[in-house]
Amino acid sequence: MIPHHVAIIMDGNRRWARQRRFDVLQGHSKGSYTLKNISKKAHEMGVSFLTVFAFSSENWRRPKFEVDGLLKLMKRYLMQDLETLIKDNIKLRIIGDLSAFEPELRELFQDAIARTASNTGLNLSIAINYGGQQDIVSAVKKLQALNLDDISVDDVKAAMQTNPLPKVDLLIRTGGEQRLSNFLLWDCAYAELHFSDKFWPDFSAEDLDYAVQDYEGRDRRFGGDSVIANTPQKA
Fold it and tell me: 23, 59, 163, 214: which one is catalytic?
């Protein structure tokens, strides 16, 4: 069965560029085109939720020219591709702390979210200035007024930025690395993991097909003794 929620750590843009002796920003630019193609393919396959890691809370440590370039790419994506998102019936969400960004970029985010809110196709969530640990800590702070003995898994989920999203079924990481890098830690508790050696700019629709086929061959037990069918799990 096709995974209900696919999450992707889009890794390898900089290494892709350096292998070709390009500026690293060219790798990020090429990666933005890959995102468009993979979003389209995911929608065609019947994936309901696609969540991608675009900019982590740790990425601010990168060189200023690279961070500035990434922010410009975000602006370009929102300004040039919003009409395509609307036409393709894609609903856009942003998860992460947007307070660190300049007002113009925050307004672009909010405008894109508002104008795609009624779309009923693929739910595309972009994680920007996001960290999984920080999300959990923020949720705990929101729950301080509750009796600790009464707090449930559902209460924590409801207080998180990822609350509108279901549990992740399949997590894909490109670029050859095999770690979560602080991405969707709560929601990936029982996700199937697929690691691709391809850098994100080279990741294709065929590679997504392969990852989904790999997922479909797994027996998902969710900690139990008996196999549980590959059916979407509620958040």
Answer: 59
